[in-house]
Amino acid sequence: MNSPLYSRVFRFLLLLVSLIGFLYAGFFTWRYLAPFIIALFISWSVQPFVNLLHVRFHLPRSLASLFILVLLGSLIVSLILLVIVEAINGIQVIGKDIPIKVEKLVSHVIEQLASILIQATRGLETWLNSLELSNHFSLEDTLSLIQIKISELSSAFIDSLFGALSTGLASLPMSMTSIIVAALATFFFTKDWDKLHSVWNTLTPDFFRDTAGLIPKQVKETMAGVVKAQAILVLISSLLIWVGLSILGIEHTLSITMVAAVVDVIPYIGTGVIFIPWALFEFFQGNFPLTIGLCILYMIVVLTRQVLEPKLLASHFGVHPVFLLMGLFLGFQLLGVYGMVLSPFIIVCIKTLHSSGVFHLAIDFIMGRTRI
What are phi and psi for residue 341, nearest 5 degrees? Predict the structure, then answer.
């Protein structure tokens, strides 16, 4: 019997079971204690600013924590309101002439549909006249069944829509409660951070504390790089949209560009929610030059983002673009769009664990070179 081999296999299985248990505990904890986890993360993020006010300006830690959190909340609310106001202004600018254009479009569509229906009705009448009496009855029965089925589907859709609205309204009190709990927990965590840190140092062994201490630093650096990369991408896309709309002679290009910048932040949705309906609308209006121009502009924006995004993210991730693309593709193959959304965060976690030495520590434990 190869005792070292069995020992390594046992250590590997022990580590695997521990990892599965840790992930299960993490999901379980997030499900029931999400507001406190969010509060802990926010408290950890604002510690440098709280310490600055507490040490340099000699403010009491409670007052410094309250000031920083109120300032942070005000900035977030102001940013959200600014985005909403600019989006509303942009939509108003875009939709200034929409009622007239929609009326013309609807009239054109109705005329075309009426022409098609008249031709179809004449063909159907000719076909019905050629059928036997029994076939007439079967056709009428079939049409009645189709009508009943459409009514049932419409009723089911309306019921599901009202059910979703009811569920959303019912969850509002719980959401507000979670926000209030998270806000209070954030204040107490921030105020007593030093005490919590002392308890953490008392309960955790030295080797675990030294390794775990590197993880927050790596996470902060990686996430800052990702935010910077996304900001650069949004800036480049906005510049291209502004220049393109100016060349096409569109009015109020700045407002439209700001709306496009807002939706461009949304992962895997982007500016397509603006350009695709806009191009279709102009196409049905018969404005083919503007339709072609909008399509070309949208393709330029998409291609530019697709070319630059892997390089920018890879440079800030510290991962080669090939591996980043591989992770995105693998995530899409396994989980679809959700996989593409989650894969960057998974890559961040893997890169952070590698940079902090967790993988090396795990290998040393499996090989028996260290004890955990």
Answer: -70, -40
Q: Output the DSSP codes for 114-171.
A: HHHHHHHHHHHHHHHHTS-HHHHHHHHHHHHHHHHHHHHHHHHHHHHHHHHHHHHHHH
d(CA 195, CA 189): 9
CB atoms inside a 10 Å sphere around CB 349: 14
Four-point Cα dihedral 297, 303, 305, 307, nearest 10: -150
Tokens standing for residue 139: 């056709």
| Tokens, residue 181 | 């709990």
Tell me the C-alpha to C-alpha distance, in Å, between residue 179 and each of 9, 36, 196.
Answer: 46, 10, 22
Residues listed for the chain: 372
- Compute the chain's Rg from CA coordinates: 30
177 backbone dihedrals φ, ψ, rounded to 5°: -60, -45
pTM equals 0.63
The SS3 of residue 197 is helix
Q: Which two tokens stand for residue 21?
A: 């248990």
Please give, one letter per residue, the 3-state secondary structure of 32-100: HHHHHHHHHHHHHHHHHHHHHHHHCCCCCHHHHHHHHHHHHHHHHHHHHHHHHHHHHHHHHHHCCCHHH
pLDDT (tens digit per residue) in 18-49: 889 988 888 888 888 888 989 998 998 899 89
DSSP for 271-335 reads: THHHHHHHHHHHHHTT-HHHHHHHHHHHHHHHHHHHHHHHHHHHHHHTS-HHHHHHHHHHHHHHH
Q: What is the DSSP letter of 265?
A: T
Q: How far apart are CA 278 and CA 290, in angstroms?
A: 10
How far, in Å, CA of 331 to CA of 343, rounded?
Answer: 6
Question: CA 341 to CA 337: how far, in whole Å?
Answer: 6
> pLDDT tens-digit profile of 193-239?
888 888 887 877 776 666 666 677 777 777 777 778 888 989 999 99
